[in-house]
């Protein structure tokens, strides 16, 4: 006779869906939107990061910039060393509005917009972390 080891069933038949809070990375370096592209690239390089969270003068997250974005701007014909991050980002967002957002919702929004990473913010607009899609 063979013994079979039984696993107890979970009290919940439907486990709660995985949320952004389960998968996001810590916020990492945050810079002010009045920083120039050149300085932001230097910060990114020294921090060994592929992206930076950008905040306004009140400390609220206004968006995220990537190394590829900034390098493309720096290499463009109209670039000057006075270009500020606020000019790169434009309007606020996009964001993941809560760490309680499900991973399915976040992934759908990111793929729909063609984004590899998005900041996760709290109800006040402060950055909590970054969600990056695996490629």
Any overview of this molecule?
It is built from five helices and six strands; from the N terminus they run H-E-E-H-E-E-H-H-H-E-E. By secondary structure, the protein is α+β, with helices and mostly antiparallel strands. The chain has one domain (20-132): CBS-domain. The strands form two sheets. The protein has a three-stranded antiparallel sheet, with no helix packed on it. A hairpin with a 5-residue loop joins strand 3 (51-55) and strand 4. It starts with 19 loop residues before the first helix and ends with a strand. The model is unreliable at 1-7 (pLDDT under 50). Residues 24-70, 98-131 form the CBS domain.
Main structural class = alpha+beta
End-to-end Cα distance: 48 Å
**How helix-rich are the residues, as a percent range?**
25-40%
Proportion of residues in β-strands: 15-25%
Shape: elongated
CATH class assignment: Alpha Beta
Q: What is the N-to-C order of secondary-structure elements (H for helix, E for strand)?
A: HEEHEEHHHEE
How many domains make up the coordinates? 1
Question: What's the CATH topology name?
Answer: CBS-domain
Oligomer class: single chain
Computed CA radius of gyration, to the nearest angstrom: 19 Å
| Tally of strands | 6
CATH H level, superfamily name: CBS-domain
């Amino acid at each position: 006779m063979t013994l079979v080891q039984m696993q107890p069933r979970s009290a919940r038949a439907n486990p709660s869906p995985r949320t952004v809070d389960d998968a996001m990375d810590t916020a990492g370096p945050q810079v002010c939107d009045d920083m120039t592209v050149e300085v932001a690239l230097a910060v990114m390089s020294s921090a060994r990061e592929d992206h930076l969270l950008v905040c306004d003068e009140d400390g609220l997250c206004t968006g995220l910039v990537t190394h590829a974005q900034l390098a493309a701007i720096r290499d463009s014909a109209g670039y000057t060393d006075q270009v500020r991050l606020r000019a790169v980002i434009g309007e606020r967002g996009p964001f993941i509005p809560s760490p309680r957002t499900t991973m399915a919702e976040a992934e759908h929004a990111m793929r729909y917009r063609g984004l590899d990473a998005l900041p996760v913010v709290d109800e006040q607009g402060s950055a909590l972390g970054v969600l990056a899609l695996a490629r």
